[in-house]
Amino acid sequence: MARFVLNSLPLSQELKKARHDIKRISEAFPGKTLLGVRESELDVGRSVKIEKEGRENWDDVVRANLGRAQEAIRVLEESSKISSPALAPQFEELRFRLYNIEKKLIRILTRGPLRIGGLYAILDDGVFKRDNILEAAGEMIAGGVQVIQLRGKSMTASERVKIGMALLRLTRPADIPLIINDDPATVAAISADGVHLGQDDMPLPLARKVLGHEYIIGCSTHSPAQAEQAQAEGADYIAVGPIYRTSTKPEAGEPVGVDLIRKIKKTVSLPLIAIGGICEENLAEVIEAGADGAAVISALAENTAVSARGLSNRINSVSRKDAEPQRSQ
Predict the structure, then answer these.
(1) Which superfamily does 118-323 belong to?
(2) 160, 180, 239, 244: least buried by Cβ within 10 Å?
(3) CA 105 to mean position of chain CA atoms
(4) Catalytic residue among 95, 249, 309, 314
(5) Candidate list 95, 104, 151, 208, residue with the active-site label
(6) Would you state the pLDDT for residue 33?
């Protein structure tokens, strides 16, 4: 499942290591003795039947197989306490590792539709002071943001990890995805919800190989061709821009305008987040053009909670209006 169905390198590695560790630890048990008590033809368990042992979906397959593995390791753990007490803690550690692997696998298999849309807040350390990032995030959540991205270009790796973990303590209870900008390693280290990649960052297929399908991967695009490529390579959402001129990221280039949103929506079905110079005054134009959400930085810098609430309400208002059936004249 992890390797061939979900194509998850991290989970495949975890399972492979667990398998090798089981074999290594079990070598302490005398092999001949184990074979001597194996009597498959006379095994009374073969005659024990239950009414139903079917599998309705992949969740059932994962739960059944990992459940059996966990039970087997528990037997080894308890049995080793008689003849090899030093092995019991090692089996116990393996058992808990399998619990975590099961949780990750089920999380991937049961993940509902991606919640990337609405007000997408970017915590840029060039705009928000590092000491106030957590406070700003709390105010954004209170104001109704639906996604938070940490963009820590000037942070060290250890700082991103520390701040990212603190942010997760705010976003997880609120059921808001936390995206890390341009840093798959931090995403994997803290189990954030996903990574956002620019055109000059790690190639998307390589990031997917590193992170697997457990994580969301977003990609910045500036043309229909780039958007179509991102979709073909397995992106979960795309950011399109800069829609308007922006002072937050001068190197972003010339504004592409809302017409690019309309063009991309004709050929790409991924959630589309508009970015670049977006504020409450031009937000309606972006959503009406077809964007599923808007990424905002500087418009949230002042009076964050109030600004977030105003922007979020504006998006919801325009989205509801667009969803209403047109009355016949």
Answers:
(1) Aldolase class I (3.20.20.70)
(2) 244
(3) 13
(4) 249
(5) 151
(6) 66
